[in-house]
Amino acid sequence: MGRGRLTLGLYNSYDQNFREPHRRVIARAGDLAMAFDMNLALFGFPIPEETRTPVEVASWIAGTTSIGHHGDYFVELAEKGRFQKFPYPSKGFPPQLGTPVLTTCRPEPSKKITVAQAAEMVEGGQSLLLVFGIGPHGVPKDVMKIPKHNLDITPGGFSLETCAAMGSVCGALYAKLNYRAHLSYTSSRFVAICSQDSRTRSSAGTSTATR
Fold it and tell me: Distance between terminal CA atoms of the chain?
């Protein structure tokens, strides 16, 4: 079984007038998704109706930002089919995006998982939707109840600015998923080389003693 997918899910808790904070956080999330091989989903954002397709939305947002190589990364993400927009979830998040995981500095003890556990879920073939509340009020209480898992990226409940939290979660999960395998391979090679070197020395010592 192959790996599951990771999707950044941005939940809009600003008002329904599209503002500069909307544009900036979407552009930055698009950059992170592109850089760390993730998808991006928007929930409840006031996107103009005339921008119907994901590529049109990405082009509209990218047209007035200097973030991410002037929005090129975000547009590329959309062109690869890795960006979608949805209305606010009523009873649950779209199941095709994977198991919802609320990112929060106040995780419920019964729902709390670690970065390592999240990575193991993805390694096991489970897709995860990482939900971030965008705006001063974060994710509403009724929506907070939907995810079965909570993830605090800090070791002690520290409240981070949204983009700092997104970058931390993306970087930590990417490292767990990709560098662990590399380190395991490197460690195995090191052990094999040391064992071979030890056998060579032992053989050389035996030959000397025989003489």
Answer: 56
Considering the entire predicted model, what is its pTM? 0.82
DSSP code of residue 95 = G
| pLDDT value of position 199 | 57
Rounded to 10°, the helix 162-210/20-35 angle is 20
Determine if residue 187 is left, alpha or beta; phi over 0 gives left, psi from -120 to 50 gives alpha, anything else beta: alpha
Superfamily for domain range 6-180: SPOUT methyltransferase, trefoil knot domain (3.40.1280.10)
pLDDT tens-place string over residues 181-195: 554 444 455 455 555
Within a 13 Å sphere around the CA of 75, how many CA atoms are in the beta-carbon half? 15
Secondary structure E strands in the chain: 6-12, 39-43, 83-86, 99-103, 112-113, 128-134, 149-151
Q: What tokens were used for 27?
A: 């552009």
